[in-house]
Amino acid sequence: MTEDSRVLDARYYMPAFGRTMKVVRGAGSRVWDDQGREYIDCVAGIAVCSTGHCHPAVVGAICDQAHRLIHCSNLYYVPNQAELAEKLVEIAGPGKAFLSNSGAEANEGAIKLARVRTGRKKFVAFTHGFHGRTCGSLAVTHKPAIREPFEPLSPACTFVDYGDLDALAAAVDKDTAGVFVEPIQGEAGVLIPPDDFFRGIREICDDAGALMIVDEVQTGMGRTGKWLAIQHTGVAPDIVTLAKGLASGFPIGALVAREGLEFGRSEHGSTFAGGPLACAAALATIGVIEGILPSVAAKGERFMTGLAAHNPRGRGLMIGISVGDRCPEVQRICAENGVLVNCAADGNLRLIPPLVITDAEIDTAVGVINAALG
Length: 374
Hints:
Layout: H1 3-12, E1 23-27, E2 30-33, E3 38-41, H2 44-47, H3 56-68, H4 81-92, E4 95-100, H5 103-118, E5 122-126, H6 135-139, H7 144-147, E6 157-160, H8 165-171, E7 176-181, H9 195-208, E8 211-215, E9 239-242, E10 253-258, H10 276-306, E11 313-314, E12 319-322, H11 327-336, E13 339-340, E14 342-343, E15 348-351, H12 359-373
Helix pairs in contact: 3-10, 4-10, 10-12, 11-12
């Protein structure tokens, strides 16, 4: 990044993250910075670049659609939209899909849908959970540092410990519209509860007439070795939200609600959501993932085996390692040696590479990470 670019960034752009490098090109599981340095990318745009950087099928689909129609609004039938909705329902289960521009918007949609269909206003979510930064999605996000400056928030939400079914049963009542839960807590550092936790959530929601809302924004689209992480548990939620890996970096989100649970006309909408380019990118992404999904579990095992000395935890290509205060240092050392990794909350190293990462790239990354961890 040139000095002029840094000056312009400091002068005109509101800072969101502490940035140290400028990525200018990507291909597959590798990226290059503006100094020409090459990296194996184990961050993937925070679990976004599922098919790798600039996959030819995705690039081709975007370019082909851009030559025909970029936008027409949801006042009309949108090219690729119904086909994408069909694919999402095939992935998530019988029902209907509603498209958005991001994961936060998908969760906003889930909040609205739960409130309007149940007639209830309150929600329950879990400590360390993350569901977005818009006011509604932030209301069900636990992290105090990003939530408390914007309180009071709506809807009202009660937080209980992730994995504590007794606390959940005490919190869910006849006024609860829904329970928000991540199958694996990603921003918290890849935290995985036992499978019976999700069966318990299902039973508690059924008993109270509340909706089970599963946030698959980070865990979905093949990240864990199945299309959805909740599919490892055998539990069927009422609403699933998706985004990050859905279109290989093109902004899109979605919610899929079970049969009989849907918005009525004019109850929800968006100008840009489900546009022709986004849907084309998502359809191409799904096509690529269909071919590589069977390999994701084995790639994850290869990573976990290589890092076994550091007690990794994870599922598929979503892996966490507790590092503590050294996490930023480990991240820096890895970058200096050509591997990009990410520090999540509480000193947890998070590895969320493209699903197309090769065995050779995994082995190289493992060697660098092990050396950095010492």
